């Protein structure tokens, strides 16, 4: 990115960044921003673990899905805005840090949501983050003529939805589930409308890297669950063997999920209006599943140590379902378009086998075996992708604009 002249306030005009910019990678600020999500994801995963262990399966999963939406939507909005308008000046950094503060406050409000159904702190902190981003969109609208309509649409749409979020806190508790679903739909609609009004530039390689980094954060939670299994094994001599097996299974599965996620280059998928929206929005399920996997492993540890209301083999679904969702999500979004018939048969079949593993009358280690088999096939095959030039880095708007939540 060429250095832009500073104003008298030492601000850089927030003009669209070049989507063809060579060597574009995550900035130090973006990496710093990601750190607060480690906290939020960890707390959400812990609370899901507690709900599942106590046998509150439907309620726990539903609450986790809502809370994780707030975490994911805050991250994805910043990420797609940054790929288009990151200036790196002091005001941009300051407003990003405000959003980070909002994430930390949101993280502190996750436990009351699970325990008392108190959404006030989560909603207020979420709105704080969204209004900070509105300020960024207004800066972009002021400095950039080509993307002004889209930027103003974003600013207007986000503001209206945040007012509705605040209003929802005044409604009866019984109405909140339906209202929240409506507001989530409204949040997801704003980028669709804004991008149809002109669109914003994007950098496929940068976005692919950013999504990969967030995937690593979530998979890191699973490695923590593996370490916890070893810690519990040292305390519970009677369950030493099964706990060590769960620890090994978690490491193998996490490595397998990492291999599957990064098998095909993601930037080829970020190409055109429809495919890019599918990639961005579809990652909610991939990321949520990755976060839930660590909770599922913690549930299995509780079952083995006699501290859970759940019982085998049903308790094992707490981790096999997230694994299957993760695998199917990555296959649908990234692998399927560039894979041959063998890969497109093996990956979904492997996900199905993992899903039903708890009802197969053999040890749960079969999940690890299934993942290893899938990875072996991936190693043997190669993705069918075209050279990067002329694909993901083509001019935007050729397919009617592109998503930048």
TrEMBL record:
It holds the Pfam family LtrA. This is Low temperature requirement protein LtrA. The keyword Transmembrane applies. It comes from the Bacteria. Signal peptide: none annotated. The chain crosses the membrane at residues 31-49, 61-83, 90-107, 119-139, 151-169, 175-193, 213-231, 243-264, 276-297, 317-334, 341-356, 362-380. Keywords: Membrane, Transmembrane, Transmembrane helix.
């Amino acid at each position: 990115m060429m250095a832009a002249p500073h104003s008298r306030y030492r601000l850089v005009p927030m003009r669209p960044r070049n989507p063809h910019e060579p060597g574009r990678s995550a900035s130090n600020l973006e990496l710093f921003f990601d750190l607060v999500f480690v906290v939020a994801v960890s707390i959400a995963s812990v609370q899901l673990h507690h709900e599942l262990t106590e046998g509150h399966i439907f309620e726990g999963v539903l609450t986790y899905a809502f809370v994780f939406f707030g975490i994911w939507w805050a991250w994805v909005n910043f990420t797609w805005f940054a790929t288009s308008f990151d200036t790196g000046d002091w005001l941009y950094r300051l407003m990003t840090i405000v959003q980070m503060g909002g994430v930390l406050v949101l993280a502190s409000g996750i436990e009351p949501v699970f325990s008392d159904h108190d959404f006030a702190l989560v909603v207020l902190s979420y709105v704080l983050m969204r209004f900070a981003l509105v300020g960024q969109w207004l800066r972009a609208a002021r400095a950039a003529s080509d993307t002004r309509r889209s930027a103003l649409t974003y600013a207007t749409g986000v503001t209206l939805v945040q007012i509705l979020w605040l209003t929802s806190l005044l409604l009866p508790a019984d109405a909140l589930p339906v209202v929240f679903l409506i507001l989530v739909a409204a949040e997801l609609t704003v980028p669709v409308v804004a991008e149809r009004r002109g669109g914003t530039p994007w950098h496929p390689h940068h976005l692919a890297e950013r999504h990969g980094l967030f995937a690593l954060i979530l998979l890191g939670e699973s490695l923590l669950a593996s370490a916890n299994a070893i810690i519990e094994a040292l305390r519970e001599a009677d369950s030493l063997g099964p706990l060590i097996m769960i620890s090994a299974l978690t490491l193998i599965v996490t490595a397998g999920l990492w291999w599957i996620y990064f098998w095909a280059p993601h930037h080829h998928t970020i190409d055109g209006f429809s495919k890019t929206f599918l990639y961005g929005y579809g990652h909610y399920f991939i990321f949520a599943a990755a976060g839930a996997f660590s909770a599922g492993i913690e549930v299995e540890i509780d079952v083995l140590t006699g501290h859970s209301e759940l019982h085998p083999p049903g308790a094992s679904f707490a981790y096999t379902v997230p694994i299957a969702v993760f695998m199917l999500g990555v296959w649908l979004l990234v692998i399927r378009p560039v894979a041959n018939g063998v890969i497109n048969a093996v990956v979904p079949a492997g996900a199905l086998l993992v899903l039903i593993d708890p009802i197969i009358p053999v040890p749960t280690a079969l999940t690890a075996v299934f993942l290893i088999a899938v990875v072996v096939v991936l190693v043997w095959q190669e993705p069918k992708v075209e050279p990067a030039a002329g694909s993901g880095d083509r001019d935007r708007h050729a397919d009617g604009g592109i998503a930048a939540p």
